[in-house]
Amino acid sequence: MPPSANIMTTVGHSLAGLSIGVLCLPRGRAWPVPAAVLAACVLLANVPDYGFFWGQGTYDIRHSVFVNTGLMLPALLLFGLWRRGRQSIGGWPVVIGGIAAWWSHLLLDSTYNHGQGVAILWPINDATSLCLPIPWFQTLQQGSKFTAANLRTFAVELVCYGGLLAFCVLIRRWRRQPGRPPRSALNHSCKKSPRGPDQARLRLRSGN
Fold it and tell me: Which of these, 87, 104, 89, lies nearest to 19 by C-alpha position?
């Protein structure tokens, strides 16, 4: 796959990662933990674009399923085997959220209309690309970033992915409504109540 003539912005990737982070935030933790989870999801959502040592400026090496899986494995093994460490960041929901934020990068890149797609099967098959272009998603033009076309690109990503973030915040707020008891409390009441989950919900809402 030839090098990309244009470059992506970080706005969409960062907002998508932040949206995933909002959904997997641990509850009942002091603010440094949720803040660290959100920051980690934003960083992970941009990993394939970091110009460390592989495939700078292309959509093959850095965007390969195999390469990114290999980069994920050490962290997966660490948190999979180290229970205390996993619990300290919020458990499996946070680990899975981090993985989803990382993988979201490949999916989002496939939606831009540069026509190249993403060579997700590199190096086994770099001729097969994931290409799901959406017409209004443009790439940045080379040169000055403050052209009308580039500013429009930033604005489109801000509106689209900002809307996704707002939707995820609403979902999280809905899950925290006073009339909806925490899942852990409901499960605990269900175990103690012989009348099942419906009676347990009534007991929690009535305060009895």
Answer: 104
